[in-house]
Amino acid sequence: MAEEKVDIAVIEAGLGGARDATNILCSSELAASVITTIGEEHLAALGGSLESIAVAKSGIIKYGRPVVLGGPFLSHVDRILRDKASVMCSPVVSASDAGIRTSIKGLIILDGRPCQLSDIMIQVERDFPLFIELSDVKLRMLGKHQLHNASSAACVALCLRDQGCRISDGSIRAGLENTFLLGRSHFLSSKEAEVLGLPGATILLDGGEFSC
């Protein structure tokens, strides 16, 4: 990243967070921490309970830097994360807060792909003001959980904007509308279907991340 002289880097923590290599980053180098979900997929490696996983993941919260919580979390898990943020004097923005409202208006077909037409309204006044109102956002990643992820991502972008980054509402919309995961609930476009010799077909690619 130093060689490429990146302006902003999105760095994913590995397993947990408390003992992760990303802790080489100090508070002065961090714009925001983000904790999206707390699940059971790494129970054995992270202490055997949701509470121990929350403690491990809260290790990415750095002193004085904002933390965006995705969730929604169980109340006791949410408390663990917020308590750690309080100890670290880190302002908290939660995608589940009352000032953040989202809705799914329906599905549309765009270039042969289904898109989720959604509204995202963020108005947070507590630690620092965050505001954006996006109507009819065309999300290529479908489901309520993906809308929640989108609102979390918008919160992060607004945190960066509050720190002086030049990020317009239009840029946030474009980022949300152009985000997708190759091979994960991934609908091919009508043009791609034609290349495969299947004109007019609806083709969904979905490779599972975990084996059962």
UniProtKB/TrEMBL annotation:
SUPFAM superfamilies: MurD-like peptide ligases, catalytic domain
InterPro entries membership: Folylpolyglutamate_synth, Folylpolyglutamate_synth_CS, Mur-like_cat_sf, Mur_ligase_cen
UniProt keyword annotations, A-Z: ATP-binding, Ligase, Nucleotide-binding
The keyword ATP-binding appears for this protein: yes
Top-level division of the source organism's lineage: Eukaryota
Record GO cellular component, one term: cytoplasm
Domain Mur ligase central: residue ranges: 1-157
Example GO molecular function: tetrahydrofolylpolyglutamate synthase activity
Keyword Nucleotide-binding: yes
PANTHER family to which the protein is assigned, alphabetical: DIHYDROFOLATE SYNTHETASE-RELATED (PTHR11136:SF0), FOLYLPOLYGLUTAMATE SYNTHASE-RELATED (PTHR11136)
Family: Belongs to the folylpolyglutamate synthase family.
Listed name of the protein: Mur ligase central domain-containing protein
Species: Populus davidiana
